[in-house]
Amino acid sequence: MFWRLFLTYLTLVVLAVLLLGALIYGRAEAVFWELFHDVAVAVGVVIFAAAAAAGALAVRFSSPLSQLNEGARRLAEGDLAYRIEVTGHHEFATLAATINGMSGRLEAMFDLLEHDKEQLRAILSGMVEGVIAIDERSQVLFANDRAGKLLGFEPDRAVKQLICEAIPEQPFREIVEKGLAATEPHRGELEWKGPPARNLAIYISRFPGHGMPGAVIVVHDTTELRQVEKLRQDFVANVSHELKTPLAVIKSSIETLIDGAAEDLESREMFLTQASREAERLEELIQDLLSLARIESGNLGLEPQTLALGHAITECVERHQQRAEAKTLTVVEKPPSDAHGDIFAWADPDALRQVMDNLVDNAIKYTPNGGRITVRWTRSADTVSFEVEDTGVGIHADDLQRVFERFYRADKARSRAVGGTGLGLAIVKHLVQAMKGQVRASSMPGKGTTFRVTLPRAAD
After folding, report:
1. Which long-range contacts (CB under 8 A, 24 or more apart) does 122-128 make?
2. Does residue 39 lie in a domain region?
3. Containing domain of residue 192, as a range?
4. Which pTM value belongs to this model?
5. Tell me, what DSSP letter sits at residue 409?
6. Which of 365, 374, 360 minimizes the C-alpha distance to 330?
7. Rounded to the nearest 10 degrees, what angle do helices 349-366 and 424-434 cross at?
8. Of 95, 75, 111, the residue nearest 83 (C-alpha)
9. Which pLDDT belongs to residue 451?
10. Total structural domains within the chain
């Protein structure tokens, strides 16, 4: 820039001198040659002075332009914090101020965009759904961590890869291809083999408008929903079966009595007793269903208070003593050896009574004649616990994890033979959890089962 301006100014001066010399030469040639030496010296001085003036002018004009050029280059490279400092002409200073103001606004805009980008990334990363954005060539633009966990790939490494390369599983590719070919949002179901195995719902929708080609893929884990649906179906099937059995017995007994068995005193008594027993079983089942529904709805209205645990256990054993003696069972109470006096739990009286009754009732049902049932209780710094241990048939390890499910029976034939609704342990679990406690089961097949309930401790 400097040399261009310098040569421009110098050329103008030289041309002016030459033009002047040509005019003088044309008017008085003889005089020109007589004064040639003086004219040459004057021309040299003029050219030297012109060069100095041209240099000064070039520096004055090129320096602000160089500063502006350097500032524009720094801004183009992304250094939006750089500010141009220009001295000299007002026009250059105004232009520099305008560029500085523009860079300040750009910096604020880029900061806002970066903040929005990080905020959007944080939102997408915190979603329970997996999100994948792809462009018109099916290359991954973005994928959150949840998508990586659900579909088994690394989101950062997948960026700029083709979606079929990042996630090569054929069922997923087929759903994506159908979604990209459709004009409306597409939904597909996928059984992901894992590990772990999952049920996934895939939603594919193109970006709105024509300015941004591509699509967004949303992956939703429906595994729990499928499990809940299966539990609901199993629950309906089990309830139907459990209701159907006593109703069938009652119906057949009544039909038999109508057909003439009522005239025979011995037969009448047998069928009426059978119908009465099944009616009681049906009532018990309905009561347990209502109790479980009330517990799961959260409308229990529990009123925790300080309860003497040993006293509650003694009352429970007394309530079941007659049934235990009928099977020649020995029921033993074992208080803690280090406790002076009773220990106290923070629990609802009715809920605690129902929990204890269900556990002791189960122990009596599944312990063979002549067996032993032990009820012991202990305390720690913040909790109290009681155990109901029997010498019954025990539970296999595969069944032990499911004993608290509704209607689950480890030995279905034996369970129906001894009676019960299959809801007792489910009620126990929900009641204990409602009282801020825990219940666990341990067992060895053929040697017995132990149920341990832990509850918050109250002040002695």
Report:
1. 128/220, 128/221
2. yes
3. 129-221
4. 0.51
5. -
6. 374
7. 150
8. 75
9. 92
10. 4
Per-residue pLDDT at 108: 72
Reading the block at residue 244, the tokens are 């159907």
Do 452 and 310 share a structural domain? yes
The pLDDT value recorded for residue 418 is 47
**Assigned domain for 283 exists:** yes
Q: Is residue 116 part of a domain?
A: no
265-297 vs 223-258: helix crossing angle, rounded to 10: 160
| Contacts for 356-360: CB closer than 8 Å, 24+ residues apart | 356/312, 356/313, 356/316, 356/386, 356/388, 357/316, 357/319, 357/320, 358/424, 358/425, 358/427, 358/428, 359/388, 359/428, 359/451, 359/453, 360/316, 360/317, 360/320, 360/331, 360/388
Q: Which two tokens stand for residue 189?
A: 């179901």
The Cα 140–Cα 155 span in angstroms is: 9
Rounded mean pLDDT for each run of 10 residues along the chain, 460 residues in total: 55 62 56 56 63 60 65 69 64 69 72 66 67 82 81 81 82 83 82 79 76 76 78 71 77 82 77 81 76 70 86 90 89 80 86 90 88 89 90 82 72 48 79 90 87 86
Structure tokens at 401: 């994890």
Question: What is the enclosing helix (H) or strand (E) of 427?
Answer: helix 424-434
Distances (CA, A) of 12 to 2, 18, 43, 187: 16, 10, 14, 77
Task: State the Cα–Cα distance between residues 332 and 362, nearest whole angstrom.
Answer: 16
Please give the pLDDT value at position 414. 44
Judge contact between 351 and 300, C-beta under 8 A: yes
CA distances, 54 to each of 6, 8, 26, 44, 192 (Å):
5, 8, 29, 15, 79
Tell me whether strands 330-334 and 372-379 are parallel, antiparallel or unpaired: parallel
